[in-house]
Design brief:
Aminopeptidase; 2 domains; six-stranded mixed sheet; Alpha-Beta Plaits; ArgE/DapE_CS; zinc; single chain; binds zinc ion; cobalt; arginine biosynthesis; four-stranded antiparallel sheet; 385 residues; Peptidase_M20
Length: 385
C-alpha cells in the first residue's frame, strides 16, 4: 500500500485523537491501538519511510511501528506511545475524541500525552530536506505504555538495534529529563486457617501475620532510604507505599487470608529483581515460625529506573537546544527499555505533564513552534551532519 502525504498539522492531530486507543490493565477499558499505528504508517510511508508494523506477542490488536529512513548503526530514534489512559467523559467539557481549539489550547484525549507529539514530528519532517541523510532516522510508535508497557518490553526482548540516540516525546514542557525512578507493584498474600474466634487454637490468623509483614516492610523502607539517596529527585529516597489491603470476613472468625498491594519506586542504580528478592527473604524470615503461607506476585513486569549519563551526547544536545539542564522526574517512561536496546535516551516533548491523565487534557499552542524547531534541530544534528 503506497502511503499518502500527511494532512496539515491540526488535521493530523485531529485524526490521531479521533481514533480511540485506550490501554488499561482493566479489560473493560482496554482497546486496540492498530488504527493509530495504521495512520502513522500511512503518513510516514508517504514521506518515504520504510515501515514495519510489529504485533505485540500475546496482546491481540496491539502493535508497535518502526518507521525508518536510511540505515546504519548510529542515528536518532524519535519515540512515543500511541495509547492513552482511560477517561471520564462526564468530567470533560468537550468531546475527548474531537480536537477542540479554544483559548490558545488544543483539547483532546492524547493531545499532550502523547499523540500530539507524532503530529509535531511529521510536521517537522515535512519542513526538512532529508535527502542528504547521513545517519538513520527512526520514528518509533509503541503500544500499551499506559498499562503494561508490553510494546516497549517486547521490542527490548526482541534484541534488535534501532539507533544510538533516542528522544521520547512525553510531555515535559520541552525540558530534557535524563532520570526517573522505576516502578514495581507487588501483591503479598498470606494464607492461614480460619476458625471460630472464641478459640485461637482453631485457626491460624493471617491478619496477625500481615501485621508482622507491614512492620517489616516499613523497616525495610527505612533502611532503603538510608542506603540510597539521590538529591536530584524531589523525593530523594526510594519509596514503598502500602496501597491496598484486604483480609478476613467477620469479626468473629479467625482471618484465613489477607492480601496487601504495595508500590515500590526505586532510584536509578537499584535493580528491580534484587529488590524483589530482598523483600521475599525478609518476609519469609518474619513469618518463619508462624506456619502461615506466604506468596508474592508482581502485579506487572515493572519499569526499571532510568539514568542516562549527563555526559551523553543526546543529553548535551537536548540541553543546548532546549536551554535547560536535564532533570529528574517522578513518572516512569519506556526509556529503560530503549536503553536496554542500546540507546542513550532523553525524555523531551511538548505539553505539560500536569495536563496528562486529566479531564480536559490539552496541549498549549505555544508549544507547537518551539517543539517542531527542537525536533528539526535534533534531526539536523544527529542525522544530517
Ligand atoms: Zn505518556
Amino acid at each position: 500500500m503506497p502511503g499518502k502525504e500527511p494532512p496539515p498539522l491540526l488535521h493530523m492531530m485531529q485524526r490521531l485523537i479521533a481514533e480511540p486507543s485506550v490501554s488499561s490493565v482493566s479489560p473493560a477499558w482496554d482497546q486496540p491501538n492498530v488504527r493509530v499505528i495504521d495512520l502513522l504508517a500511512e503518513w510516514l510511508q508517504g514521506m518515504g519511510f520504510e515501515v514495519r508494523k510489529l504485533a505485540v506477542p500475546d496482546h491481540p490488536g496491539k502493535f508497535n511501528l518502526i518507521a525508518s529512513l536510511g540505515s546504519g548503526p548510529d542515528g536518532l530514534v524519535l519515540s512515543g506511545h500511541t495509547d492513552t489512559v482511560p477517561f471520564d467523559e462526564s468530567r470533560w467539557r468537550s468531546d475527548p475524541f474531537t480536537l477542540t481549539k479554544k483559548d490558545n489550547r488544543l483539547y483532546g484525549l492524547g493531545s499532550t500525552d502523547m499523540k500530539g507529539f507524532f503530529a509535531l514530528v511529521l510536521e517537522a519532517l515535512r519542513g526538512l530536506d532529508l535527502s542528504p541523510l547521513k545517519h538513520p532516522l527512526v520514528i518509533l510508535a509503541t503500544a500499551d505504555e499506559e498499562s503494561s508497557m508490553s510494546g516497549a518490553r517486547a521490542l527490548a526482548e526482541s534484541g534488535q538495534s534501532l539507533g544510538r540516540h533516542a528522544v521520547i516525546g512525553e510531555p515535559t514542557g520541552l525540558r530534557p529529563i535524563r532520570m526517573h525512578k522505576g516502578i514495581a507493584m507487588e501483591c503479598i498474600r498470606i494464607t492461614g486457617r480460619s476458625g471460630h474466634s472464641s478459640n485461637p487454637a482453631l485457626g491460624n490468623n493471617a491478619l496477625e501475620g500481615m501485621n508482622l509483614v507491614l512492620t517489616e516492610i516499613m523497616q525495610w523502607r527505612q533502611e532503603l532510604g538510608e542506603r540510597y539517596t539521590n538529591p536530584l529527585f524531589e523525593v530523594a529516597v526510594p519509596t514503598v507505599n502500602l496501597g491496598h489491603i484486604h483480609g478476613g470476613d467477620n469479626p468473629n472468625r479467625i482471618c484465613g487470608q489477607c492480601e496487601l498491594h504495595i508500590d515500590i519506586r526505586p532510584l536509578p542504580g537499584m535493580n528491580l529483581e534484587n529488590l524483589r528478592g530482598e523483600l521475599d527473604m525478609r518476609l519469609a524470615r518474619v513469618l518463619q515460625s508462624t506456619g502461615l503461607e506466604l506468596e508474592r506476585q508482581s502485579m506487572f513486569g515493572g519499569v526499571p529506573a532510568l539514568e542516562t549519563p549527563a555526559s551523553a551526547e543526546i543529553v548535551h544536545t537536548a540541553e543546548q537546544l532546549s536551554g535547560y539542564a536535564a532533570e529528574a522526574v517522578a513518572f516512569g517512561t519506556e526509556g529503560p527499555f530503549l536503553q536496554q536496546m542500546g540507546m542513550d535516551t532523553v525524555i523531551l516533548g511538548p505539553g505539560s505533564i500536569d495536563q496528562a491523565h486529566q479531564p480536559d487534557e490539552f496541549m498549549s499552542m505555544d508549544q507547537i513552534r518551539p517543539g517542531i524547531a527542537i525536533i528539526q534541530q535534533l534531526i539536523q544534528r544527529f542525522c544530517l551532519t
